[in-house]
Amino acid sequence: MGLPPAGSSLGIGPIGQESAPLRRKLTATLRRLVETGRLAAGQRLIEKDLCAELAVSRTVLREALRELEADGLLVAGARGLSVAVLSRAEAENIYAVRAALEALIARQFCQRADEAARTALGLVHVALRHAYEAGPLGALLDAKLDFYRTLCAGAANPVARDLLDRLNARISLLRARSLADPARKRASLAEIDDLVDALRRRDGDEAALCAERHVAAAARVALGSPASDLSNLPETHQ
Questions:
Q1: Which of 59, 83, 146, 184 has a CA that sits 20 to 30 A from residue 121's CA?
Q2: Domain 20-83 CATH (choose: 3.40.50.300, 1.10.10.10, 3.40.50.1010, 3.60.20.10)
Q3: Where are the alpha helices (DSSP H) in 83-157?
Q4: In which element (H, E) is residue 80 found?
């Protein structure tokens, strides 16, 4: 079948203006509202109200909402979308998977990371320390995201990065609640420091153990009591 004559219609219509940058910004904004609890678990989302407050079109809003629904942050019901409510059992399972996955990534980083990856990890570790010590909650969540993405890059495991992003999205509000506790923030920073020290020494076993302990401690604080599958990890060896 030949090409249509020059000047004839292809029958596909005009191409609309690219809206991806706006959609990404909107998605990030809505995600942060869920993470910090400003959009509370179980809260129903009213499209016309969100469009008015955020000054976006309904089309772009719906694209962003679909992305958050795919990540498990929103759920569809008879009255439309609402912020997902995570059961304790689901949260325990997510933390358990995170512990195993982060231990794997730590081992792989020790085995695979080149000098550039180790330097990059050092830089994001410094930024993360600053965020722990002085930054607001949003900045801390962003810094932790950068840290784990850099860790995954050094481990040469993009699959793990994708899985971690999705798991952390599901428990975003619990993570925010945990990190809002000053005592937990101090303990969490010490745990990260221990992990980075083991990674620098390329001690895969110790790095994996540090990663598991870090997730286990976060789970205990976020859930309010020891999580069933995460409470029997060994104590830190000083």
A1: 184
A2: 1.10.10.10
A3: 88-112, 115-134, 137-154
A4: strand 80-83
Q: Coil, strand, or helix at residue 9?
A: coil
Contact yes or no for 149/161 (Cβ under 8 A): yes
The pTM for the full model equals 0.76
What does the block give as tokens for 236?
A: 């830190």
The yes or no reply on domain 88-223 and CATH 3.30.70.330 is no
If DSSP codes are grouped into helix, strand and coil, which group holds residue 108? helix
Look up tokens 């792989």; give the residue.
Answer: 108
Instruction: For residues 201 and 149, give the distance between their C-alpha atoms in angstroms, rounded to a whole number.
Output: 20
Torsion of CA 229, 169, 136, 184, to 10 degrees: 0
For residue 74, what are the β-bridge partners?
83
What is the rounded distance in angstroms from the CA atom of residue 123 to the CA atom of residue 131?
13
Closest Cα to residue 121, out of 189, 200, 187, 191?
200
- What tens digit of pLDDT does each residue of 122-165 get? 999 999 999 998 867 778 888 999 999 999 999 999 999 999 98
CA distance 132 to 189: 7
Q: Which two tokens stand for residue 199?
A: 């990674």
